[in-house]
Amino acid sequence: MTKNSKNIGLAKSEFEDLFKTYFVGLSAFAQKYVKDIDSAKEIVHDVFVNLWNKRATIDPKKSLKSYLFTAVKNRCLNKIRDDKKFDTSIEDLDTVSNQFKAEDQDHLELAELEQKIHSILMQLPEKCRAVFILSRYEGKKYKEISQELNIAQKTVETHISKALKALRLGLGNYLKLCITAFIIWLNKG
User: Fold this and answer.
1) Is residue 94 pLDDT above 60, yes or no?
2) pLDDT tens readout for residues 123-147
3) What is the rounded CA–CA span in Å between residue 147 and residue 124?
4) What is the rounded CA–CA span in Å between residue 71 and residue 47?
5) pTM to 2 decimal places
6) Residues 187, 189: Cα–Cα separation, whole Å
7) Phi and psi (nearest 5°) for 62?
8) Which region, left, alpha or beta, applies to residue 140 given φ > 0 means left and ψ of -120 to 50 means alpha?
9) In the chain, which residue ranges form alpha helices assigned H by DSSP?
C-alpha cells in the first residue's frame, strides 16, 4: 500500500451511511423516469451494489452525491431503452432523453430538497420529530397528536414550532431559490 492510497476505499460504515442517506431520495428520483417504484428501487439498489463492488477504489473524502444521481439517471435511461425494444409504442429514446434533460434539474432539485428535509428531521429530538411527522405527513390535528402521544397540546405546539424553526434555518437557501423561481415563473405568465 502506498502512502497516497492510504485514504482510498469506502468503509462498510461509510457505505451504510450513504445508503441510508440517499436511498429514499434516489428511489424517488428514479421513479420520475421509470414510473414504477419497484423498478426505481431495483435501479437504485443496482447502483449501490456497483458502488460496493468498486469500494476499494473510492476516495471517501470526495462527494458521491452527484455520482449516485448520475448513475441512477443513466440506469433509468438504459431501462427505458431496453424496455423500448419490447414495446414499440414507447417514444423514441432521443425524444424521451430530451424530455428528461429538461426535467432533470427539477427532479434533482426536488430529490435534493426531500433529502435535505429528511436530514433536518433526523437531527431533531425523537419526540419532536414524531410530533412533526404526525402533524405534517399524517395530517393529524394537534389534539389528536397530544392524545396519541399522551402529551399536552401546548407541548405539541412547541415541538411543531421547534421543527419548523429547524427547517427554516436548514432550508434557508432552498426557500430563497423557490421564491425566486416562483417570481420568475409568475413574470413569464
Assistant:
1) no
2) 999 999 999 889 888 888 999 999 9
3) 21
4) 7
5) 0.45
6) 5
7) -90, 150
8) beta
9) 12-34, 37-53, 65-84, 93-123, 126-132, 142-149, 153-170, 172-188
